Every structure is written in structure tokens, then in C-alpha cells.
């Protein structure tokens, strides 16, 4: 009879402990779910981009005018040459985050005149 009581007591204690453990776990879960929401947003931001090229545009930009000399029948002449930059602008779109990015690069430098 005494042993039964002890067992019952220990069972009650075990119950109490497990109850408090459950409560503590629950409190942790609330914190955790808050973190999970934050984590999800962070994960979304961390999601690698899905860049897809949507367009490529070329543009001719006058860069400079320079002079060069040529010899014609033993006479030194000065000529002007226009330097044009052929610029390429690529546009990418990322459907994961609904944003775009563009990159402009120099494709070619063109001299209007042939000269050395
Ligand atoms: Zn993105
Ligand atoms: Zn030139």
C-alpha cells in the first residue's frame, strides 16, 4: 500500500514535470514560429535570383573626336576622326522577386576614319 502511494506520487510528479515540459515546449514553439516567419522572409530574400534576359539593346554613343595626321604628296594634313562607342544594355527580369536589373557594357569602339 505504501509502495503504491509512492508510485502514485511519483506518477503525479512525472505528470507535473511533463505538463510543465509541454508548457515550456509550447512557449518555445511560439518563439519558434515567430522565428520561422522571420526565417521564411530571410530565406525568401536569400532565394537565389532567377534572372532571365528579357532584352538586349544597342546604342551608339559619341565618345570623342580626335585629330590624326596623314601625309599626302609630302604635305602633312590633319584630319578629324569621331570615336563612337557601341554600347550594349542587357535587361534581366527575376520572377522570384519581381525585379529587374540591367547591365551596360562597351561592345565596340568605332573610329569614323581609318587611320593608323
Ligand atoms: Zn530576384
Ligand atoms: Zn580615330
TrEMBL record:
The keyword Signal applies. Keywords: Signal. It comes from the Bacteria. The keyword Signal applies. Residues 1-24 form the signal peptide. This is Uncharacterized protein. It comes from Aquibacillus halophilus.
Amino acid at each position: 500500500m505504501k509502495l503504491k502511494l509512492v508510485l502514485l506520487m511519483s506518477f503525479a510528479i512525472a505528470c507535473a514535470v511533463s505538463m510543465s515540459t509541454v508548457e515550456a515546449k509550447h512557449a518555445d514553439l511560439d518563439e519558434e514560429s515567430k522565428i520561422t516567419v522571420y526565417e521564411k522572409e530571410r530565406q525568401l530574400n536569400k532565394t537565389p535570383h532567377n534572372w532571365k534576359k528579357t532584352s538586349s539593346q544597342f546604342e551608339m554613343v559619341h565618345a570623342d573626336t580626335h585629330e590624326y595626321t596623314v601625309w599626302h604628296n609630302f604635305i602633312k594634313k590633319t584630319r578629324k576622326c569621331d570615336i563612337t562607342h557601341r554600347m550594349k544594355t542587357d535587361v534581366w527580369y527575376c520572377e522570384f522577386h519581381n525585379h529587374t536589373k540591367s547591365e551596360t557594357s562597351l561592345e565596340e569602339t568605332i573610329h569614323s576614319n581609318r587611320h593608323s
